[in-house]
Amino acid sequence: MAYLLMFVTLLHLITLAMLFIATMEKSWWVWDGMENSDLWYNCRFDNLTETWLCSSSKETEWLQAVQVLMVLSVVFSSVSFLVFLGQLFTMSKGGLFYFTGLCQVFAGLMAFSAALIYTLHKKEILQGSRDLTSGHFGYCFILAWVCVPLLLCSGVIYIHLRKKE
């Protein structure tokens, strides 16, 4: 039981960190390594000053939906972890971690929705940016997709997990 508890806790923390990185880092769409776009900024590398120059992304309804869903996913996963810690110390023997699991499943569904919207509506989200055919999805986008099954699996594990002495 102790190993399962450590595994679930470690899985939750790793997934939460990956989800936070996917939400905040600057690599959802990349053009030739010198320009990239994320949920918040469009950045390009300036060779003269050797720094990244960033400007706010053009606000579209689709981009705002992805932003909100990713932030909600981080919030649900964080709340889930805090509730898990609270339940771990206060719940009676034999109790199930239903609320923790449901929060984790909701976090997974939010991340899934955000990544799916970005996948299907990247042309509208990145409008006014460079030609999309010369770019590709960045590692933050991939991290968001990797988080989806991890969040859903940990949510299901939490739902089936019983507290033992």
TrEMBL record:
Signal sequence extent: 1-17
Membrane topology, from the record: Multi-pass membrane protein
Species lineage: Eukaryota, Metazoa, Chordata, Craniata, Vertebrata
Family annotation (InterPro entries): PMP-22/EMP/MP20-like, PMP22/EMP/MP20/Claudin, PMP22_EMP_MP20
Keyword flag Transmembrane: yes
Transmembrane domains' residue ranges: 62-84, 96-116, 136-161
Localization of this protein: Membrane
Name of the protein in question: Epithelial membrane protein 3
